[in-house]
Design brief:
The protein has helices at residues 53-63, 68-72, 101-110, 126-139, 184-190, 196-208, 230-241, 350-367, 380-383, and strands spanning 8-13, 18-23, 32-41, 76-81, 114-116, 143-145, 156-161, 164-172, 213-219, 246-250, 258-261, 268-271, 276-278, 294-304, 309-311, 313-325, 331-337, 394-396. With 397 residues, the chain is an alpha/beta fold. Strand 5, helix 4 and strand 6 (143-145) form a beta-alpha-beta unit. Helix 1 (53-63) packs parallel to helix 3. It is globular. The relative contact order is 0.13.
């Protein structure tokens, strides 16, 4: 990435259940940073079982090859790590995920800086698996937030980039019932369980510490449903009222509505669900709809001035999961940015090109909350629009 940090230095541990991490920069530009956030990183074993251990890290990197150019320009790249990485247990997939270490190494290599680790799959290999996952993420040089560990690392983080302090918070409404295996002490130490009042208190703690921007990952909502539930909408308004700047939803495995709100004291960008960024959920597979193939890169800039620090824009770049067999007949997946898909069709077959265009139009409507505009089937003339890149959903101050 343009300036990427020389190192991450953990400066101080606080009693507010969070760490402070400082990134030392190579230049003196402190006033503006670019951030990208994505949704579920859900690694089914079908995406790597055709390959030997030694091949897998490269295979994982190639999944992201079309989006790394976006990551390279950003100062902070975040994702939702949905699963565990516990080498002492066998690799596994749905319903309980345990992925290869090489996946974590690949995420670091392609440009991820931090991963939210609190979700309904973070206990798939028990407490030891959760602790192992956090440890491996941190050993790779990335930030893990949302869950705690035994090394004194807390559940929330404060990252200082170019003089801008960004607080990272994560909470989950689901743990697939596996939290019942933990003692109350373990729950309090390791999990951030969704509770509206506790989330508000954590936001206030961040503000009391002088954090410039509070960013919250929320694992919530109903799977495969495009619209937020009423209680989500009510909670969202309360979080915004507390001054939170960024709210990023996950769990439904489909996209959800997104918006940026401009206010005098702070701006807020939110999205109810970012969908799947990587997974093997696709139409006709497991009885799923085409909406599980779409994801999004949420890109926003934070600007610090003498008066205040705000997010100044909110861009949504839709993505599509391309599943295919390579020349050796091995099954793979690749994340395709849809910003200019009409001009860069990637040598897709007519069928795959159509699917990519469908995902782009679906995303355009869903992200604006216009789900009634979605069609069961689009005509070719409705789908193909060479100027559609100008419709990239974007809000700026």
């Amino acid at each position: 990435m343009y300036w990427k940090a020389i190192f991450l230095l953990i400066v101080v541990l606080l009693n507010h259940n969070m760490n402070i991490i400082i990134e030392e920069c190579k230049n003196n530009k402190w006033e503006k940073i670019e951030c990208i956030a994505v949704g579920d990183l859900l690694l089914h074993d079908s995406l790597y079982k055709d390959f030997e251990d030694a091949e897998r890290e490269q295979v994982f990197k190639e999944m992201f090859s079309e989006v790394t150019s976006y990551f390279d320009k950003a100062d902070l790249v975040l994702g939702n790590f949905e699963g565990t990485c516990y080498p002492d247990m066998p690799l596994s997939s749905y319903p309980q995920f345990n992925v290869p270490k090489s996946f974590i190494y690949a995420l670091k290599a392609v440009g991820f800086d931090g991963l939210c680790t609190v979700n309904n799959h973070c206990l798939d290999t028990g407490v030891q698996g959760l602790l192992s996952t956090n440890s491996l993420i941190r050993q790779s040089g990335m930030i893990a937030f949302g869950t705690g560990d035994r090394q004194g690392n807390k559940k929330s983080e404060v990252v200082v980039i170019k003089g801008i302090k960004v607080g990272l918070i994560g909470f989950s409404d689901f743990f697939n019932g596996l939290e019942a295996n933990l003692s109350e002490e373990e729950k309090n130490s390791y999990l951030s369980i969704y509770n509206k009042q506790q989330i508000i208190e954590e936001i206030r703690n961040m503000k009391d510490l002088g954090v410039d921007i509070v960013l919250v990952y929320l694992h919530w909502g109903q799977e495969y449903v495009l619209e937020p539930l009423l209680w989500q909408q009510e909670d969202m308004q309360e979080f915004i009222a507390q001054g939170v700047e960024v709210i990023l939803g996950s769990h439904p495995h489909v996209l959800g509505q997104s918006k940026m709100i401009f206010q005098k004291d702070h701006n807020t960008g939110y999205i109810y669900s970012m969908g799947n960024f990587i997974s093997d959920q696709f139409r006709d597979g497991y009885g799923l709809s085409r909406f599980t193939e779409a994801g999004v890169m949420v890109r926003f800039h934070i600007k610090k001035s003498d008066k205040d620090t705000k997010i100044i824009d909110w861009e949504l770049i839709p993505t599509w999961l391309y599943h295919y067999y390579d020349n050796e007949g091995k099954y793979r997946a690749k994340i395709i940015p849809l910003e200019n898909i009409e001009k860069e069709p990637y040598n897709f077959s007519d069928d795959n090109f159509r699917k990519a265009l469908e995902a782009k139009w679906d995303s355009f409507y869903i992200l604006q909350g216009k789900t009634k505009n979605i069609m069961d089937e689009y005509s070719v003339n409705q789908l193909y629009n060479p100027n559609f890149s100008t419709l990239l959903y974007s809000q700026k101050q």
